[in-house]
User: What shape does this take?
Amino acid sequence: MDVTRQRALIHDEEHFARALARAAAGAVIFAFPLLMTMEMWELGFYMDRFRLALFMLVTLPVLFGLSYYSGFEETFCWQDDLIDALTAFGIGFLVSAALLTVFGITMADQPLSEVVGKIALQSVPASIGAMLARKQLGGRDGPDQERRQSSSYAGELFLMMVGALFVGFNVAPTEEMVLIAYKMTPWHTVALAFLSLGLLHVFVYTVGFAGQESRGEDTFRSVFLRFTVAGYGVALLVSFYLLWTFERMGGLSAMELVTSMVVLGFPAALGAATARLIV
Amino acid sequence: MVEAARRDRDDARARSGAGPASVSWLAWIASGIGLLLFVGSVGILGYEGLFRGDGDPVIVLSVDGVTHDGQRWHARIRAENTGGSAAARARVAGQLLSDGAVVETAEVEFDYIPAGSTQRGGLYFDRDPAAHDLRLRVLGYSDP
Assistant: This one.
């Protein structure tokens, strides 16, 4: 471990304070659409407490992994990543609490469980936003850039998972997800699944975006199977988990459940495709 | 440029300095607060999940006061959910009774009454509720 560089950056209060401010800005920018979404406030008090607690427990390793690959400041060892993950969570929580209070959504006369539930749910996207701030808000790319570019296949899938989670989360709480699923016939579902798959492939591996994955020497078939199909699988799994967490699958038949997964899988696939651009 | 210069300076300081590399006090405080908030909220949610169960909503209604706004009588009511789960679209009816017969009915719907919380609303009547028996009833609700 390069102790000298770690000392130089993490030890420096001024640098860390700037990173904190940037993270708070990222939390506000990424989380305000959800902070202003009615379903999120309602989910905060009625969703199952265990599912919400589990959701938060899942968030911490996601933040840890994001800190490794990107993060709001450069990190050099796992202790740094842990510190940054906890800091990002704290920032996300406080930003959510402050904005929900300003909006008049959380009030002093509400029961503790309701207030904590509302803020805790919002702190998930806000803390991911805080973590992504560095990449998004003009932080220079340091050594993490190399780390991202040389990330393993598992790392690629992790980044796709985070992208799918983050983008899927933005629409998963809305009632429109299930409503769209009700309106679609099985043929619509098949069409949407192919459209998602096609876009996922085109976005990352064909269109020349900055930060795109280089196809290198791999053949089309290899890339399609290893990344596009796997990425769509990740997107569908994330959709399933989000629908379960937000209690959107109660009373759905198997067909409606699959349709809802494909519907939410569309934004999730776009998130997975653009993960390399955001993260 | 400034950043690079500062890093070089810090590198130099770090190389000459003795003792193990330590994390800034600001980073310790920030991550400590984060840890506290994380453990606290997961703890509260877990505690609620374990000990408050998923009982049915129990909606208790009461009248806060009655005023006359110049045209109609306005009864302020409150609905408190003392049960274990939230009620959505809870409909509340207020009936004015005279000698056991209903002479007037007013209705209101609460979007949500979360478990443990109190929601407020109002019912309008043409007759003075104080001169009659005012009976409040929950007509029904749906699960969120």
Q: What stands out?
A: Residues 22 and 99 of chain B are 81 Å apart (CA to CA).
